[in-house]
Every structure is written in structure tokens, then in C-alpha cells.
Amino acid sequence: MQCKAGPDPALALAGSLMKRMIRCNKPGCRYCEKDKGKGHGPIWILSVSAGSRRVRQIPVPAHLKQEAEEGVRRYTEIQKRLKQISSLSLDLLEERKKR
Ligand SMILES: [Zn+2]
Fold first, then answer.
1. Using CA atoms, how far apart are residues 18 and 60, in angstroms rounded to an integer?
2. What is the distance between the terminal CA atoms of the chain, rounded to a whole angstrom?
3. pTM recorded for the entire structure
């Protein structure tokens, strides 16, 4: 039986991707008008946990957005598989205790 290739762990991103509008603060900018303008963007931010409550926010340029999205999806997928493996390992451990 051939081993089915899983998600490539080298391309996994532990974070979440979010959208944000930004303000340029230039006087007279119609996008940034108070209460009216929505700002510029959206720009994409990859929010990555950097341990002990710290979060890194990394701007992702539009042409890399899809790739980043893919990486986040991959990370989630790998985590899911690890949980499945752990669950099987637990079953195996219980099984071996009986012998
Ligand atoms: Zn502006």
C-alpha cells in the first residue's frame, strides 16, 4: 500500500489571517475622512502567537495572501491528524496494558 501524502509540514503556518483597513492620515484623503471613509485596503495580517501572550502581526502582501491562507489551512490539517494519531496511540497503549 502506498503511503498517502499528507499536507506538507514545511509549508504550514501557525497563525490566523485577518483583514484590516488602514488609515493614511493624509489631510483631505477621501478614503480616510472621519466617520465617512473606510480607509485603505483591506490589507492582510498574519497573526502568529509568539508565546507568553505575545502576538506577532505580519503584513501579508496581496500576491502572497493565497499562499499564507493555504499555510494556515495546512497547519490546522496537520493538527487534526496529530490528534487522530494521538487518539490511536492511546488506544494502542490501553490495548498493550491488557497483555
Ligand atoms: Zn487615506
1. 10
2. 29
3. 0.71
Distance 22 CA to ligand 1 centre (A): 8
Q: Give the number of other CB atoms < 10 A from CB of residue 99.
A: 4
Q: Cα of 42 to ligand 1 centre, how many Å?
A: 12
Interval 62-73: pLDDT, tens: 999 999 999 999
Cα(64) to centroid of ligand 1, in Å?
23
CA pair distance 92, 89, nearest whole angstrom: 5
Asked if 12 and 80 count as a contact pair (C-beta separation under 8 A), the reply is no
> Is 14 in contact with 48 (CB distance < 8 Å)?
yes
> Which of the listed ranges 3-12, 35-44, 65-74 does the model predict with the highest average pLDDT?
65-74
Please report, for residues 18, 19, 28, 65, the alpha-carbon distance to residue 24 in angstroms, rounded to integers and kept in the order given.
19, 16, 10, 22
